[in-house]
Amino acid sequence: MSDRPLRVAVVGSGPAGFYAASALLTADPPAEVDMIERLPTPWGLVRLGVAPDHPKLKDVSRAFERVAHRPGFRFFGNVELGTSITHDDLTQLYDAVIYAVGAQTDNRLGVPGEDLPGSWSATQFVAWYNGHPDFQDLEFDLSGERAVVVGAGNVALDVARMLALTPEELAPTDTTDRAIDAIADSGIREIVLLARRGPAQAAFTTPELKELGELAGADIVVDPADLELDDASAASIVGNTNATRNIEVLREFATREPAGKLRRVVLHFLVAPVAIVGEDAVEGVEIVHNELVAEGERISARATDRRETIPAGVVFRSVGYRGVALPGLPFDQARGTLLNGGGRVLDESGAPIAGVYCAGWIKRGPTGVIGTNKKDATETVQLLLEDAAAGRLPRTSERRDLAQVLAERGGDPVLYADWEEINRIEKAAGEPRGRPRVKLCSWEALLAAARPDPS
Ligand code: NAP
How far apart are CA 215 and CA 192, in angstroms? Predict the structure, then answer.
């Protein structure tokens, strides 16, 4: 055991990573934290997932900035796990490693036609309009009149809403210019959201649902027949504030007469895609009407034999994210998370692997809002600190420094000061246009901004 501060690597710089770093840096005694991030930019989904018309949600980045300025914190962007640095390297360099890498892929529908051109995952669209540098080459054909969004979670609402925003609503946001133009020029007049279960089972939250009724350029359309609750659903919402409020909001939507706005957002319950159809590209979605069956606590959807095809030019599949296994670490395939107990990564026998932890979506699955990660990451750090106090961490007095290892390997990390330069340039570009920032959205532009030409 050594007297030096605990040295911890946090992999991933989204909310879970920053909340974990915060808990470590404010521990008694404080730990040292190196945060490792594949992209040249921090903040994970706060920068690249949260809808750009939700600037208040992005404000949490100010708290992350304060964390980053605490003594003992270093940021290493542009460092990819598995390429620049491996898990084994990290266990050599640090007393403990916390993986906070999120859920890097999306759930599949598992229906024919899912991979037709024009069938996209919400993840791709969200990353594209948010300026993620890996997604800027995508070409979304929004010329068709109807878009279908599959899923009834907040991401589905984000996608439906973004497709419906007017240029005036998009103008003060940090949506990429390309996405603003594409949405403004799109031929989409109707956005149909498909929920496989009923309104009482919808995963979205009430404030986000309400927003769909407040769009300048789109009417909201809900069929009152979709809102008739079966006995099990009616019983299930008693004491469930979110579901009860959702139903109230939906009932109010169902009373509205369309105001003749340019676009309509249609919420359709108890329907699920059975195929995405089209010759060479998406032409429609074949759906089946479902009925609900109560199976213990769970109210599930069961297909009826009523089917129909909704013509559509583009489909966005928004049926949840999924964690991706990390090389050399045990993975829980059923949950799509690292195998873990409260954030301690476990081996196949269920025993904790000394010094290896996880936080956020790769720990608990892709649920909850940004703030959920605070409690989640703090729990992980508490276990880590308990393990440290009990001498269960593999601590040695001699550890090499990540900066030195990366330098030897020809790595080119983007440090926190470099990111601050990117941040400054983006904000300066946004300021005269009344926007929070204009994002740099290619690797070249980001790295060039991080390494200003000295001449
Ligand atoms: P989610 O909340 O888990 O919703 C996934 C939706 O997909 C559910 O409605 C689910 O229906 C449906 N689904 C799953 N498999 C399906 C299938 N095979 N066919 C048809 N529908 C299917 O996931 P999410 O929307 O990706 O959001 C992830 C997390 O981020 C959530 O916790 C969300 O609240 C959060 N988030 C928050 C905000 C915000 O606060 N503004 C914004 C975006 C995301 P079933 O219920 O029937 O399975």
Answer: 15
Termini Cα distance of the chain? 48
**Model pLDDT, residue 109:** 97
Q: Whose C-alpha lies nearest to ligand 1, atom 16?
A: 319
Q: Cα(186)–Cα(183) distance, rounded to whole angstroms?
A: 5
CA atoms in the 13 A half-sphere facing the CB of 363: 29
Q: Is 387 a residue whose pLDDT tops 60?
A: yes
Which SS3 state, helix, strand or coil, does residue 405 take? helix
Lowest model confidence (mean pLDDT) among 193-197, 219-223, 399-403: 399-403
107-321 belongs to CATH 3.40.50.20 = no
* 200 secondary structure, DSSP code: G
**DSSP helix/strand/coil, 44:** coil
268-285: b (≥16 Cβ within 10 Å) or e: bbbbbbbbbbbeeebbbb
Give 225 Cα–ligand 1 centroid separation in angstroms: 23
**What is the whole-number distance in angstroms between the Cα of residue 45 and the centre of ligand 1?**
15
- Are 144 and 313 in contact by the 8 Å Cβ rule? The answer is yes
- 212-221 mean pLDDT: 98
What pLDDT shows up at residue 455? 63
Q: What is the dihedral of CA 141, 143, 145, 147, to 10 degrees?
A: 20
Domain borders along the chain are: 7-104+323-414, 107-321
**Which residues touch 234 (CB under 8 Å, ≥6 apart)?**
200
103 lines ligand 1 (CB under 6 A): no
- At 98 the three-state DSSP class reads strand
Q: What does the pLDDT look like over 397-447, one tens digit per residue?
A: 678 999 999 999 999 999 999 999 999 999 999 999 999 999 999 999 999
366 lines ligand 1 (CB under 6 A): yes
Amino acid at 279: E
Q: What are the backbone angles phi and psi of residue 304, rounded to the nearest 5°?
A: -95, -175
Per-residue confidence (pLDDT) for residue 395, from 0 to 100: 77
Give the DSSP per-residue string, 294-316. EETTEEEEEEEEEEEEEE-SEEE
Q: Is 151 in the pocket of ligand 1 (CB under 6 A)?
A: yes
pLDDT digits (tens, 9 = 90+) for 31-71: 999 999 999 999 999 999 999 999 999 999 999 999 999 99
DSSP states along 270-301: SEEEEEEE-SSS--EEEEEEEEEEEETTEEEE
- Give me the amino acid identity at 240: N
CATH classification number, 7-104+323-414, choose in 3.40.50.720, 1.10.1040.10, 3.10.310.40, 1.10.3720.10: 3.40.50.720
Q: Using CA atoms, how far apart are residues 452 and 417, in angstroms rounded to an integer?
A: 12
In sequence order, what are the residues at sequence separation of 6 or more whose Cβ sits closer than 8 angstroms to the Cβ of residue 390? Answer: none
